[in-house]
Amino acid sequence: MKSRLEFTAPIILDATIYAADLRREKIMKRITFLFVIVVSSLLIAACSASASAPQGLTQPTSPSVTAAQSSSSAGGTTVTVTLADNTIASSLTTFQAGVLYTFVIKNTGNHAHNFNISTPVSITGGEDASLASALLAVTQDKLPVGGGTTVSYTFPASSVGAQLEFSCLIKRHYEDGMRLAITVTK
């Protein structure tokens, strides 16, 4: 006849293994849940940054491009500005206050860009602040891939000696080098 101990030992061992399996299953469910949350958060952040960052920027309190400004001007100095991915090139970088300039802006890059005449981000503290204080802002809908626009602008006397630059203030574009220092004189 078998002792009582022989019958209970396998039952206790089975219960211990079953409890350990339940703990492992709970841990795996938690890890899977956390993994799904992290991946979802990253996807949402990536999609919202690339899709909505340009629209999330505030509009400047200074003039932005309107239909009247987009038409070519008969007078003034013509300045050719080329926006490519990670660079801005301009036929002029020194300007005079009170003189009319006609900016012919072309986007030769693989992404939509915007064009701004603004204080550098290093001074304003951020792209939104630079855009809000921009002297001139041309939105990305006017500068699609392969597109361009013409804008007439006169630098005010208050811009003489100010630290200014041409820039694309779309997140990552500015950080990747889409800025060019300019000078405004009397």
Following the backbone from N to C, one meets helices and strands in this order, namely HHEEEEEHHEEEE
* Helix amount: 25-40%
CATH homologous superfamily assignment of the largest domain: Cupredoxins -  blue copper proteins
The whole-number mean of residue pLDDT values reads 79
Radius of gyration: 30 Å
Specify the number of helices. Answer: 4
Structural class: alpha+beta
Give the end-to-end Cα distance, rounded to a whole number of Å: 113 Å
Question: Into how many domains do the coordinates divide?
Answer: 2
Overall 3D geometry?
A: elongated
Approximate strand percentage: 25-35%
Strand order of the largest sheet: 3-9-8-5-6
Beta strand count: 9
Looking at the overall shape, the CATH architecture of the largest domain is Sandwich
Outline:
This protein has 186 residues and is α+β, with helices and mostly antiparallel strands.
Can you characterise this structure?
With 186 residues, the chain is α+β, with helices and mostly antiparallel strands. It has 2 domains: 1-56; 67-185, Immunoglobulin-like, CATH 2.60.40.420. Helix content is 36%, strand content 26%. It has helices at 4-56, 67-70, 121-124, 127-132; strands spanning 77-84, 87-90, 94-96, 100-107, 115-118, 136-138, 148-154, 164-167, 179-185. The strands form 2 sheets. It has a 5-stranded mixed β-sheet, with no helix packed on it. The chain is elongated, with a radius of gyration of 30 Å. The chain starts with a helix and ends with a strand. The model is unreliable at 49-73 (pLDDT under 50).
